[in-house]
Amino acid sequence: MKKVLLTAAITAASLATAAQAEVKIGFLGGFTGQIESLTPPIHEGAQLAVSQINEQGGLFDGETLEMPTADTTCSDSSAASNAADRLVNSDEVTAIVGALCTGATVAAANNAAIPGGVVMVSPASTAPAVTDLDDDDLVFRTVSSDAYQGEMLAKLLLSKDIEDVAVTYVNNDYGRGLADAFEATYEADGGTVTANEAHEDGRADYRSELGVLSSGGSQNLVVLAYADGSGQTILRQAYEGGMFTQFAGADGMVGSGLIEAVGGDALEGMIATRPGTPDVPGAGMFDEMAEEVDLDPEAVFASQSYDAAFLLALAVEQNGSDSREGLSDALRDVASEPGETILPGEWEKAKQLIADGEEINYEGASGSHEFDENGDVPGIIVEMLVEDGEFVSKGTLDF
């Protein structure tokens, strides 16, 4: 009986130790819905950071970093709130990478993360609405605001002598913010917007909307929506109806799923923009690491997601525990100068410096992340062009 009790006690102690030897950073993504073809490589970018951290000793005294996931569906605010609630209150994560779509990030933050004191770092929520959140310094992002991307898209089209456009945008924070920024710059710089119409996502037929958009006479259609949602249907029906000869879009449209659904011939020459990566050492390192695990380093927001996960893990290590309290301050500490530079993959080095009481400054796969007072970062925008059935990067925009 004593042996049985001793065995039971040892087993219980082992289970308790195992339970304590796990730190959770959640991933909140659009695994279904309008960006389901874009989400897998974004998730894989974060998972790459997790695997490197665990391979190099994990957190603290060897605790394993785990990344439970939850699906926001991108557009359903209730689903986003419920998904975040599960991560915050059931999985008891310390922090969250995500969400991806802006509406999902806003809903998740307001209804779960902020009340729970959980830091969120989005690698893909680009709408200006994120800047305006009353978030108690809990919501950050490793991608720049659409206020800049909209401006760059406008200047790009004008530089190609596209002097008039019709614009349709998905009726949410992402679409509205991007459309407003685009129109303001495009018209200020001499372009003509012949129509600027919101549309609701999830419909099977947009032919009436396309009729209104084409009635202004422009042959150029700018679609600010999602590759696996309304954007896909609108482009297909616009092409089938022969209403426009030139298509353009932004980051939500840049994905292989769009080309597979609509057709490479139909989209040949389509112009788009997406957040890019500056020419920094971390970018080349990420490219090599991603290719080793068959992750496309050019996948939209993959490098930003890697940085979000790595930064949060550094912040947890800097904070000294898996407590949520104090994590936002720790995040700013590890992301900002001064401090010894930490590059992607250099977890062991960072961990030792933190243990020695030294300051560190993470310089990431997608650039420096000197968060401003709103948790935003500066960024660069890349031109994308559909050539021979795929989106091809044509370089950084600098107007």
What sequence of helices (H) and strands (E) makes up the elements?
A: HEHEEHEHEEHEHEHEHEHHEHHHEHEEEE
User: In CATH terms, what is the architecture of the largest domain?
Assistant: 3-Layer(aba) Sandwich
Strand content: 15-25%
Query: How many helices in DSSP terms?
Result: 14
- CATH first level of the largest domain: Alpha Beta
CATH fold-level topology of the largest domain = Rossmann fold
Helix content: 40-55%
- In the CATH hierarchy, what is the superfamily of the largest domain? Response regulator
Secondary structure: number of strands: 16
Main sheet, how many strands, which sense, barrel? 7 strands, mixed
Distance between the termini: 79 Å
Tally of discrete structural domains: 2
The whole-angstrom Rg is: 22 Å
- Kindly report the average pLDDT value: 93
Signal peptide: 1-21
Main location: membrane
Domain Receptor ligand binding region: 45-378
Subcellular location: Membrane
How would you describe this structure to a colleague?
The chain has 399 residues and is an alpha/beta fold. The protein folds into two domains: 19-144 and 280-331, Response regulator (Rossmann fold, 3-Layer(aba) Sandwich), CATH 3.40.50; 147-275 and 380-396, Rossmann fold (3-Layer(aba) Sandwich). Helices cover 44% and strands 20% of the residues. The protein has helices at 2-20, 39-55, 77-90, 102-116, 146-159, 173-188, 207-214, 230-241, 256-262, 264-267, 281-292, 302-319, 327-335, 347-355; strands at 22-29, 64-66, 69-71, 95-98, 119-122, 139-141, 164-170, 192-199, 220-224, 246-249, 271-275, 340-342, 360-364, 367-368, 381-387, 390-396. Strands 8-7-9-10-11-15-16 form a seven-stranded mixed beta sheet, with helices on both faces. Strands 1, 2, 3, 4, 5 and 6 form a six-stranded parallel beta sheet that branches. A three-stranded mixed beta sheet has the order 12-13-14. It is globular. The protein starts with a helix and ends with a strand. Residues 1-20 have low confidence and may be disordered. One of its GO terms (biological process) is amino acid transport. This is Branched-chain amino acid transport system substrate-binding protein.
